[in-house]
Amino acid sequence: VDVWLSISSAGKNMMENKGLYNELATRSSDKNTNSDIKDTSGECVLDIIKRDLSRTFPENPSFKEPVMLNNMQDILAAFCLHRPDIGYCQGLNFIVGALLVATQRKDGELVPEECFWLLVALVEILPDYHSNKMTCLNNDCLVLNDLVRKTVPQTHANVTLFGLPLQMFVTKWFVCLFVDVLPFHTLLHVWDTLFYEGNKILFRVAVYQFILHKRELKKLNDPSGLAMFFRDLFWDGKAWDNFEYMRKVFKKTKKMKRKYIEHKRMTRANETEV
């Protein structure tokens, strides 16, 4: 976590804005303030956040503890005040939950201020995944579709055989940054690279998921089986060896250059505008 703070903008922002997180968290808990924070439908954002907290890692007992839930609520609400252009988006709750666990001290103490600034830094690293329109998210799903089709064309054909768009299965990967898709210790290594080299790693991991599971995907013969396969990826055990997993991610996707990804992004964005 100390490395994340130093190589991203999080550590610097935290030092230069001492006390800001506590101020935002206090403001967000004020009834007059939180009732004014609404999403595009007019619903109070704090009510949406509270509703989503119960759906965040429901099988993990730590996320039933009041101290964990209260800290998650404070961080997400503070973020809404800090970045009103983004506000709250489903998926941020999973990222914050993972950050709270990652920043937790050995004695169990939670460090919400570090978590808040790391969240801010992550959102800055990403394209515009978490705004209301999610234009960049949709665009990157199309780019991933192109990358999968180029890298493993037969697997792409197998997945799209039933007329279901790839976007249906991979949107969560980008929105949640692979939280609840990869084992936690493997996820942290992905995030190491995300903080260090930027969002290119999201495409590399996503494409490798299709490379890694091409045999299983070839055997599927109906849409429901396909949906269940993507839902249960977390439990298949193929990403438990985090060092071997990351080694193969880099090996199998070494030809995936940043310049090419940016070209595909621009191409897809221009097509969307037309």
Report helical residue fraction. 55-70%
Based on CA atoms alone, the radius of gyration comes out at 19 Å
- N-to-C CA distance: 43 Å
In N-to-C order, the SSE pattern is HHHHHHHHHHHHHHHHH
Low-pLDDT runs of 5+ residues are none
Shape: globular
Number of helices: 17
Proportion of strand residues? under 5%
Q: Give a count of the beta strands, DSSP E runs of length 2 or more.
A: 0
Mean pLDDT: 92
Helix and strand composition category: mainly alpha
Largest sheet report: none
Description of the molecule:
- With 274 residues, the chain is mainly alpha-helical.
- The chain has helices at residues 2-7, 10-16, 20-29, 31-34, 45-53, 66-82, 92-103, 112-125, 135-151, 153-160, 167-175, 184-197, 200-212, 214-219, 223-231, 242-252, 258-273.
- The radius of gyration is 19 Å and the shape is globular.
- The mean pLDDT is 92.
Topology:
Layout: H1 2-7, H2 10-16, H3 20-29, H4 31-34, H5 45-53, H6 66-82, H7 92-103, H8 112-125, H9 135-151, H10 153-160, H11 167-175, H12 184-197, H13 200-212, H14 214-219, H15 223-231, H16 242-252, H17 258-273
Provide a short characterization of the protein structure.
By secondary structure, the chain is an all-alpha fold. The protein has helices at residues 2-7, 10-16, 20-29, 31-34, 45-53, 66-82, 92-103, 112-125, 135-151, 153-160, 167-175, 184-197, 200-212, 214-219, 223-231, 242-252, 258-273.
